[in-house]
Structure formats: C-alpha cells, structure tokens
Design brief:
CATH superfamily of the largest domain: Thiamin diphosphate (ThDP)-binding fold, Pyr/PP domains
CATH class of the largest domain: Alpha Beta
Number of strands: 18
CATH architecture of the largest domain: 3-Layer(aba) Sandwich
Oligomer: single chain
Helix content: 25-40%
Strand order of the largest sheet: 2-1-3-4-6-5
Largest sheet: 6 strands, parallel
CATH topology of the largest domain: Rossmann fold
Number of domains: 3
Shape: globular
Radius of gyration: 24 Å
Number of helices: 22
Distance between the termini: 73 Å
C-alpha cells in the first residue's frame, strides 16, 4: 500500500470526516488518496489560515481534532497563526504539511523552511514522517496527544517521496480511550471545608469546563447549593445565563460593575480557567480572598494568579463529588450583596439597548441579535471592540452558542469559524459578526462558503478603522492617528462572490434585514454602519469612576 493511502486510511480510522486545506504539488499523492476515500471530504479553502481556523473550530465544537493541510514553505508558514489559535484556545487540531523529497532532491533549498522547528513552540508536538512504515503510528499518536488535556494543535510533515513509498502489510492501531483520573478525596474534602467556611463564595467558570458532562455537573452544583456564578468570555453558556444566580461575564480584567461582586467574595471556586485566557480577576498578595483551582491540571503560578488549593482531575467528576459532599451540610450563604450587584449589572447593561440612533450602537446590535436568534442559534465573533459588548451584554443560553477567542484573540478567525459551525450544524441559524478590519483578513473565504452552499449571515461592522485600537488610543490620551482606512463597497463585493449584499440605513431596517436573511437561503452579507463613540465614555471613564466609589 502506498504511504499516502496509509495516511488517509489512518485518518479514516480516527473518524475524520473533513480535511480543510490548500494543497500544493508536494501533496499530490495525499490529494489523490483523499479523492479515493469514501469517508473524508476535502474542503478546499482560499487561504491556509481559513483552513486552519476551520479545523480548529471543528475541534472546539466536537472535541475531536480537526484536520487541515498545506504544502511546504509559504503554505506551511500561513498555518502558524491557526496553530497558535488552537494551542492557546485548547482546540484539538492536526496539521499536515508537505515537504520536498528528503532522500533525493534536485531543487536544492528552493522553498525549504524548517517547518518542524517553526511549529515546535506553537504545537504540542511537531514531527516528520520519515518512512512509510511508521505513518499510521504517528497519526495515532498525533490524535492522542492533540485530544489529551489540555487539548491543542499537533503537526506532521509529509515529504513528497515518503508519501509515494510502498509499504507491505501496514498496521492500523486500535483507538484506545483513556479516562482522566478523578481528584483525590483529600483535595475534595479540603475544598468542601473551604467552601463551608466561606460567607460569600462565588463560582467562576472558564473555557476548560466547556464539556457536556461538566456543564451538567456545574448546573446541578449551582442549583443544589445556591452559590452565585460568573464566567469568563470563553466560559459563556456553560450554564444557561438566564439562571437567577448568574451575575455576568468578566469581559474586562477589572473595574467593571461585575467586579464589585468579585472584590466582595471571600472565596472564588475557579473551574476550568487558566491564565492563557485574559484574567477575569487579578490576585495580589494583600488579598484576604481565597481561590480554589479546579481543572484537569494544576494552576500555573503567576503574579496575578496563585490559588490556595488545587483540585486536579476530571472536572465533571470533581464537581459531582464536591456537590455530594456539600449537600448534607449546605448552608445559606450571604448572597444579598451579589444579587444587588446583579441588578446593578443588568441596569447598566440595559442602557442604550433600545437606542435607535444610526449608525447603530453595539449595545443595540447585541440586543437585536439576541432577540432574533433562536435559543440554539450560534454567533461567531471575530476580534474587535464589539467582542467586549457581546461578552458583557449577550446572554448565552447553551454551550458553544457564542464562539469567541479570548486566548490568542486573533483577527480573521470569526468568519471561517462560522463556515465550520454552519457546516457542522446545518439546521441551526448561524451569524458571524466581524469588524471591517478582521473580515477583510479572510474575506476570500466568501467563495468557499458560497461553493459549500451554506445558508449563512455575515454582519460587517463598518467604521472604516481598527476600532478597538482607536478605543485604546483614546483611553491612553493619544490623538487619533494611523488606524483609519477605506473599505470596498461590501454589497458589490458580496455579489462578486455570488453572495447577497445588504446595506440597511436604519436600526429598524437592520432588524428586518437580519430576520429576513436568517430565514433565507445562501450567504448574506450585511454592511452595517456602527457607532463606537460611546466606547471610551462607558468602558474607560464610567467604569473607572465606578471603581473609585
């Protein structure tokens, strides 16, 4: 059997159903093997970044590694940002890159870059398949490592001559699942005593708890024990945010109205968070507040994070055990202050939600989107100032219904993520919200979405500038400089790809357009003028004044 056939059969053995990529001449044997597969579908993209972001999102949504491929040299270097995206965001992903023949090459060092070394710091491992006999073993190991907690990206390089090699009697490895150990009884009992000793405990939920079993266990924990909770940006929706004990999302590291509760708490039960995601609160040596760290791995000690207890093991099992230990001794914690904070947060967030000025305020956009989108609908966000507004103002009702990146926080990932979400869940409504800057970084994937016959709505927030950096610039007291540009006519741009373009001229027209497009066939682009003029006043001045009261 040819090595390229072994590779694809090994991927089939892992349950792979998609490969996203932009192949080159070094991948032609692998490409032919994909063509012959009746289980794997090739999704051809217009840039390697798009392929990588789609594969990472597949991993995020399914828990199984998404697979992407590129050629050597410039194709492989274009996967560096998706590699970092998957690694920091804990998304399982396998990257396959091509390479010149390693046994004999007549092209010298043409296009040769040390991709193995380049990928090493951005992945959980980076290896070359040096001969056909070990190809299936390396595929199995790649998938095992990628899925193992903490999940992330892995990289395999496939030289052109190795992919052509013939192998006799190839061996395909059985997929052996491994159960994550449970936290030991001593740490569960210590956590129990810390919680029972607390007067005002708070539960914090981070991205690491974004597992179905953990979601169920955490919901039961809150219901049974009555402890209020908040979450990080990437922890949104793990517990339905309509829950009466939900206080809000820590979209900023400090000063937001929610942080009044964090400052008042004497114990934070921190589940599934690590400091790769922007810290939802900052510890300091003078704190009287204690922190319990519950995760698959121990806390990395940082100046801003040094918990007093680690409860390490499968999160769902740990939470279940803790709930059972606490239930017989459960007490009425003092949550009155927290409920007042919740009212304060809701009062603050509701301002401008019904403001119909145009260009549209981001708060109004969030409210309209939530009103129109079904409970199980999905919003994917690119990176920009609107991400903070969605994190703070958009109540997520279920896991993975608001997809954002608060780890690498790269621009250009939101639209490819939406393509993947819609492909995986064709019966769900999907909206992709992008800034004009981030959208243009991978706008060529419009052709991919149209070719895939997706029913997808893409909102482009048009302010002709890198709005988030302008907000920071204003907050630092600098004059506006170096961040404004001109955009194409997005309606004509959409039409040139075979999509449908819309440009509403009022909030009312936008509401009608969004409702109509969500219930229409095809890819729809909404060019929406946005007003960011209140960002500085609310997120800088108002919150700083509030923190000094």
């Amino acid at each position: 059997m040819k090595t390229s056939d072994i590779i694809i059969q090994a991927l089939e053995n892992e349950g792979v159903d998609y490969i996203f990529g932009l192949p080159g001449e070094e991948n032609l044997d692998v490409l032919e093997s994909i063509r012959k597969s009746d289980k794997i579908q090739l999704i051809l993209t217009r840039h390697e970044q798009g392929a990588g972001f789609m594969a990472a999102t597949y991993g995020r949504l399914t828990g199984k590694p998404g697979v992407c491929m590129s050629t050597l040299g410039p194709g492989a270097t274009n996967l560096m940002t998706p590699a970092a995206y998957a690694q920091l965001g804990a998304m399982p992903m396998v990257m396959l890159t091509g390479q010149k023949p390693i046994k004999e090459s007549k092209q010298g060092k043409f296009q040769i870059v040390d991709i193995l070394e380049m990928m090493q710091p951005l992945t959980k491992f980076s290896k070359q398949i040096t001969y056909g006999k070990n190809a299936s073993a390396l595929i199995r190991e790649a998938f095992r490592v990628s899925q193992e907690e903490r999940p992330g990206g892995v990289h395999l390089e496939i030289p052109e001559d190795v992919s052509k090699e013939m192998v006799e009697n190839p061996h395909f490895f059985e997929i052996v699942s491994s159960k994550i150990p449970s936290a030991n009884t001593a740490s569960i009992l210590e956590a129990k005593e810390m919680i029972l000793s607390a007067k005002q405990p708070l539960l914090l939920i981070g991205a690491g708890a974004n597992r179905k079993r953990a979601s169920e266990a955490l919901t039961k924990f809150v219901d049974e024990l009555g402890i209020p909770f908040f979450n990080t940006q990437m922890g949104k929706g793990i517990i339905d945010e309509r829950h009466p004990l939900y206080l809000g999302t820590a979209a900023l590291s400090s000063n937001d109205f929610l942080h009044e509760a964090i400052e008042e708490a004497d114990l934070i039960i921190n589940v599934g968070h690590d400091t790769i995601e922007k810290p939802p609160f900052i510890m300091n040596a003078a704190d009287k507040r204690k922190v319990i760290h519950m995760n698959f791995f121990a806390a990395e000690i940082h100046e801003v994070y040094f918990p007093q207890l680690n409860v390490i093991g499968d999160i769902a099992t740990s939470i279940h055990k803790l709930t059972e230990k606490l239930k017989p001794n459960a007490k009425k914690w003092n949550i009155n202050f927290f409920l007042k904070v919740k009212e304060n947060v809701l009062s603050h967030l509701s301002k401008y939600e019904e403001d119909n000025r145009f260009p549209i305020l981001p708060q109004r956009l969030v409210k309209i989107t939530r009103n129109i989108l079904p409970e199980d609908g999905i919003v994917t966000l690119d990176n920009g100032i609107y991400k903070i507004w969605f994190a703070r103002n958009f109540p997520a009702y279920a896991q993975n219904t608001l997809l954002l990146d608060n780890a690498l926080a790269t621009m250009g990932a939101g639209f490819p993520s939406a393509i993947m979400a819609k492909e995986l869940y064709p019966n769900k409504k999907v909206i992709s919200v992008n800034g004009d800057g981030g959208f243009m970084m991978n706008s060529q994937e419009l052709e991919t979405a149209v070719r895939m016959h997706l029913d997808l709505v893409v909102i482009i927030l048009n302010d002709n500038a890198y709005g988030m950096i302008e907000w920071k610039q204003e907050g630092e007291g600098f004059p506006k400089f170096g961040l404004e540009y001109n955009n194409p006519d997005f309606v004509k741009y959409a039409e040139s790809f075979g999509a449908v373009g819309h440009r509403p001229e009022s909030v009312q027209e936008f509401e009608k357009t969004l409702t109509k497009t969500l219930n229409s066939k095809g890819v729809h682009i909404i060019d929406l003028a946005v007003d960011y003029s209140l960002n500085h006043k609310i997120l800088n001045v108002l919150l700083e004044e509030n923190s000094k009261k």
